[in-house]
Specification:
Layout: H1 9-17, E1 44-47, E2 54-57, H2 60-71, E3 75-83, H3 87-96, E4 114-123, E5 126-134, H4 143-158, E6 164-166, H5 173-183, H6 199-205, E7 210-212, H7 213-224, H8 228-240, E8 244-246, H9 252-255, E9 257-263, H10 265-279
Parallel strand pairs: 5-6
Antiparallel strand pairs: 1-2, 3-4, 4-5, 7-9, 8-9
Helix pairs in contact: 2-5, 3-4, 7-8
């Protein structure tokens, strides 16, 4: 499929009417997708676990930012390439601060800017938003990019939210790759859900220390009386949902090792309650 046009006012209106950049949760459709722009590095389609839908990341940096976001306990929604609308407000902010507002490529039509991620975060018993921009350090040397970042920062500040800029210095590729590896069997509309039925026994048998992946899989297999594939799924399910705390800063795939740091009984209980509620 070819790229979708986003150059004229009519294009913007059509995109909004088609639901792009609108909605939340699994009903959200990003303003810009993989097929709309050239990507920096490798673009990816990732099935989310915080929100059950496919996410489109446009660079390795966005991918490395997405996985920790998807894993955070207090993040309850993630919307990628969120449009900075109303456009007139963004244009007015740029004019007020003497910043040249960008046009759509090849036109004189003011563009609709987008924020790389808009995370909905639950904190102190209320919801708030975290706008996130993923920029390589080399991009921060380009005035046009800096102008767009500043317009978006001022836009979100006017709404009461602080923009976060993530560069390659702020992400941990090893941690992101570990999270991708651990969560891979859990992702997808048809992915099964296998939760631990005997977590107390696992807590007793797995004290903090370093294990091989396979030894943990076999232990879970024996305690849960399942086959190795299901045992692996249960192990990764425990890790992803914070029941089993590990060091994610050391490559699991390269070493074949998992450094167990402890257990979180509250997280195990919360996960079981969520599963029970979804199957009731």
């Amino acid at each position: 499929m070819g790229r979708r046009k986003l150059k004229t006012r009519e294009d913007f209106v059509r995109a909004l009417r088609n639901g792009r950049g609108i909605g939340k949760g699994s009903n959200y459709d990003p303003w810009i997708g993989i097929r709309d722009v050239p990507s920096s590095g490798r673009s990816s389609l990732i099935y989310g676990l915080t929100v059950l839908r496919e996410f489109e990341t446009l660079s390795d940096l966005e991918t490395y930012t997405f996985y920790p976001l998807d894993w955070k306990k207090n993040v309850i929604d993630i919307r990628e390439q969120f449009p900075v609308l109303p456009r007139d407000l963004a244009i007015g902010i740029a004019e007020r601060y003497g910043i040249t507002y960008p046009n759509a490529p090849g036109t004189r039509e003011p563009a609709v800017l987008s924020t790389d991620f808009l995370a909905t975060v639950f904190t102190k018993k209320c919801e708030t938003y975290m706008p996130i921009e993923c920029k390589y350090k080399s991009e921060l040397l380009i005035k046009r990019e800096l102008d767009k970042l500043e317009i978006k920062r001022l836009f979100w500040a006017a709404l009461g939210y602080k923009q976060l800029i993530v560069t390659e210095d702020e992400v941990d590729p090893v941690a992101a790759e570990n999270l991708a590896f651990i969560s891979s069997p859990l992702r997808g509309q048809l992915a099964p859900t296998h939760a631990a039925q005997n977590p107390q026994e696992l807590v007793r048998l797995v004290p903090p220390r370093t294990y091989t992946i396979e030894s943990l899989v076999r232990l879970v297999r024996d305690v849960e009386s399942v086959d190795e594939d299901v045992g692996r799924h249960i192990l990764f399910h425990l890790i992803w949902h914070h029941g089993l705390k590990i060091d994610i800063g050391v490559s699991i795939q390269e070493t074949g090792l998992i450094s167990v740091q402890g257990w979180d009984a509250d997280a195990i209980q919360a996960t079981q309650e969520r599963i029970d509620a979804n199957t009731a």
